[in-house]
Amino acid sequence: MHELTARQAEIxxxxxxxxxxxxxxxxxxxxxxxxxxxxxxGVQKHLLALAAKxxxxxxxxxxxxxxxxxxxxxxxxxxxAAGSPVLAIENVLGRYPVDPSLFNPRADYLLQVRGLSxxxxxxxxxxxxxxxxxxxxxxGQLVVARLGNDVTVKRLKLRGTRAELIPxxxxxxxxxxxxxxxxxxIEGIGVGVIRNLTAAAPPAAHARRVHRL
Amino acid sequence: MHELTARQAEIxxxxxxxxxxxxxxxxxxxxxxxxxxxxxxGVQKHLLALAAKxxxxxxxxxxxxxxxxxxxxxxxxxxxAAGSPVLAIENVLGRYPVDPSLFNPRADYLLQVRGLSxxxxxxxxxxxxxxxxxxxxxxGQLVVARLGNDVTVKRLKLRGTRAELIPxxxxxxxxxxxxxxxxxxIEGIGVGVIRNLTAAAPPAAHARRVHRL
DNA sequence: GTGCATGGTGAAAACATTATCACCAGCCCG
DNA sequence: CGGGCTGGTGATAATGTTTTCACCATGCAC
Lengths: 213, 213
Prior knowledge:
The structure is a homodimer. The first copy, chain A, is of the alpha+beta class. The first copy, chain A, has two domains: about 5-70, Arc Repressor Mutant, subunit A (Orthogonal Bundle), CATH 1.10.10.10; about 75-195, Ribbon (Umud Fragment, subunit A). Helix content of chain A is about 15%, strand content about 30%. Chain A has helices at about 5-20, 30-35, 40-50; strands at about 55-60, 65-70, 75, 90-95, 110, 130-135, 140-145, 150-160, 160-165, 175-180, 185-195. In chain A, the strands form two sheets. A nine-stranded mixed sheet of chain A has the order 4-3-5-6-11-7-8-9-10, with no helix packed on it. At the A-B interface, β2 and β11 of A face β2 and β11 of B. β11 (about 185-195) of chain A pairs antiparallel with β11 of chain B, so a sheet runs across the interface. Chain A binds a DNA duplex through α3.
């Protein structure tokens, strides 16, 4: 999908909002009113541009025939390949209909937890950690951190120039870092946990096209 | 909301499906075609009946102006008052945008877990247990059971006419039941767990009106 | 059996919406 | 400096859609 212009992004955002609030896509006159345009044709050209760039689909001759083509739900990230960004395509196992607004701050992706290093905080092997993407974390928060080529989930403690990454399982070691020497890359903070208790048959990843929410 | 007739329920279901699949509500001609009616007025009368019963809202003079008025998301059940049904209004703390299809079998409600009796299975105080409503459970499943006036979450083991409700914490006792004497009422089975790690500011319960799913 | 809710047909007027025409201006790129 | 993309105005035809007529049949409660 090509980059959208500022104007096109505004219009796409309005369509999203209209869909969420009214439960149906806007018409061209409604869009024209919202953007104070005198002609529906201005709107029509923006819609054609958005459709050409793959952001929406226009259903011919249907009133309110605007469909959003964004992917629904949050990406589930599995084992992170060495050196690759967390959200790189090869790490994404699928998309699942989890509402980002259910968590605070907003959820950005799901990370499948491997191992039992956070067992005593009730985070088990296979659980989905709900992650808010940020590079800043405060002491005491559960962080998704990158250590060299590895991505790990631990509780962060900051003491001046020293940092600790603390597991919640006596079988694992606390990692001590000197921030004047070592680099600590924060990928995000844990804002929630989701566990599927009947995981024998995991739900199919929704490739569903959205409209709202 | 009054009871819907079979026909009205069919039509409501179609509207729901159309919304989920097409991203916009159906028009009256579309409904007429779907139900093989020769006149859009047949549809119109059904819509007026649905609106009168509070199932939908009709937006005047708007193409596809049908809004679903169902409540979004799943109810979160807090402490269950003695003797009351789990989903009784006084037990419901709010509604949260959790997608029922994310779990298998389908999620019906969320139960706020009290205490640490399932700690070693990673279910902690305050966690939301995702529950599928059923009165039948198999041995080995995590069940929401009613014991007299209390509702409890334990793992179920069945051995002939004897049943055990087993906690996952050595500080708690296994409950032994003789099914020829005692009654074991199953309210549902646990199909998932959701935990909010930053629960200081819990998300506002959505009273949001849906369209989608 | 009379009244009322449900579930229809058929038609038509009024209005909402899409789609396309011609035309204009600014901007950036080669 | 010419051509293409963006972002507009204004108008109109064709179609989609809502709304409301009048009329009919069935089942059910009082």
